[in-house]
Structures are given as structure tokens and as C-alpha cells.
Specification:
The protein is mainly α. The protein is 75% helix and 0% strand. The chain has 12 helices and no strands.
């Protein structure tokens, strides 16, 4: 029997909502924690293989390549997220929790706060899926299965978001496709983007006292859903 995407959302919702604590944990994971994991992942890749005792050329080149991938991953994820947000405003597809009767084992006050925060934006394409899968493609070559780990984290988040009624399966699929396409494009163009990544990496080497605090601000902005970055871009573009 064919199962439509509304039924998929309701099935996942029943699984998550069967236990109140599981539902609350899903809310936490897809809320602030979703945006805290990514900076930690970037920090891990940035320092992967780095050691004051390592002097050989191959190790230094590997560290440099990983740091370049972090910059490219941040670029691809930011652009993918921005495009998905633009698309959600363009298509204005109502989120599942607006259209479907879902189980919500939390107080009405908590749930209405979530609905008010997310209900004003459309669900297509999935911005979280685009964000995670764009960087998963770029980080695939960073070693130690980091790309697959990133994709796995992204899958967990999007499945939880479907179960909470934030997105439909087609929203997620569209977001994944957008992220993979953009991540692949950035990865293929990485040599042409040396004009951007090389100066940044050189400044990290020459001016670490300035660059690392600045990098921390960018990482903090990720936890704020890149609100500052998008605000600066909007000001520069006069939007």
C-alpha cells in the first residue's frame, strides 16, 4: 500500500511522541543543540592532525587541506542555508504542524512558542538538510569518515524534525539535493576559490591573536543560525 508523506510524518510523530521525554529530547536536539554541534565539528576538523611536535611536510599539508575544507564547508553550508531560506519564503509551503493533527506531549505554552517561531516560514526546501549536507560533501575528504559522520548527524536531525512536524519528506529531499549540489559545486571549484581561502589561512598564521577571536565570533554566529552574517550581508546589499 502506498504511504503518502503526510502519513510518514504522522508515523514518525507517533514514534517520537510515544514518550514525553523522547519528544522533549527531540525538541532540544533540533533546537539549540543542532546549532551547537556544527561549531564543535568545525573545530575538530580544524585541529585534526595539528601538533606542535609535527614538523614533516606531509602532516603540515594535511592540516592545511583540512583547514581549507573547513572554510569551504562553512561557505557552502552558509550559502545552502541562505538559498533554502529564500526558497522557503518563495514557495511558502505550510509546515506539517500547521496542516496535520499531531501528537504533542508538552505544554501548550511551549508548543505555541515553537509554532510562532517556525510557523511564519515555509518548509520547502528544508534549510537544515541543505545546511548539513552541503558541508558533509565538502568534509568528505577530511579523513576519518568525517563526511559520513556529518551526513549521519544531518539524517538524525532531519528525521527528528519530520517527527516533530517541522518538515515533510519532500522538503527534506529537496534540502538534501540542494546541499549536495552546492557542496559538490564548491568542492569542484575549490582550486578556483584559492583566492579566498589562501589569504584567510595566511592571516590565521600571521595574525592568530586577531583571527582566532574573529573565528570564534563566526562559530558563535552559527549557534544563532547565522543571524549576524545574514544581517551584515543584507546591509551591504541594501536589502
Amino acid at each position: 500500500m502506498f504511504i503518502n508523506e503526510q502519513q510518514v510524518v504522522q508515523l514518525l510523530n507517533q514514534i517520537i511522541a510515544a514518550n514525553q521525554w523522547v519528544f522533549i529530547a527531540a525538541l532540544q536536539l533540533t533546537g539549540e543543540l543542532l546549532w551547537l554541534v556544527n561549531p564543535l565539528l568545525f573545530i575538530w576538523v580544524w585541529y585534526s592532525g595539528a601538533s606542535p611536535h609535527v614538523q614533516n611536510t606531509r602532516s603540515r599539508e594535511a592540516v592545511h587541506a583540512n583547514r581549507q575544507r573547513v572554510l569551504l564547508a562553512f561557505l557552502s553550508a552558509s550559502v545552502a542555508f541562505a538559498l533554502a531560506r529564500f526558497g522557503s519564503g518563495l514557495f511558502a509551503r505550510p509546515r506539517p504542524f500547521v496542516e496535520l493533527a499531531l501528537q504533542v506531549p508538552v505544554s501548550d505554552e511551549i508548543w505555541q512558542g515553537i509554532v510562532a517561531a517556525l510557523g511564519s516560514t515555509g518548509s520547502f526546501p528544508g534549510d537544515v538538510a541543505a545546511f548539513w549536507f552541503a558541508q558533509a560533501v565538502v568534509l568528505r575528504g577530511a579523513g576519518r569518515g568525517i563526511g559520513w559522520l556529518t551526513a549521519g548527524i544531518g539524517f538524525v536531525f532531519v528525521f527528528l524534525r519530520m517527527g516533530l512536524g517541522y518538515e515533510y519528506p519532500t522538503d527534506v529531499i529537496a534540502g538534501v539535493c540542494l546541499g549536495v549540489l552546492l557542496g559538490t559545486a564548491v568542492l569542484l571549484a575549490r582550486h578556483r576559490l584559492n583566492w579566498l581561502t589562501r589569504p584567510v589561512l595566511m592571516m590565521f598564521g600571521r595574525f592568530p591573536v586577531i583571527m582566532y577571536p574573529l573565528a570564534l565570533l563566526f562559530l558563535f554566529d552559527i549557534t544563532q543560525r547565522m543571524a549576524w552574517l545574514f544581517a551584515i550581508i543584507a546591509v551591504l546589499l541594501g536589502i
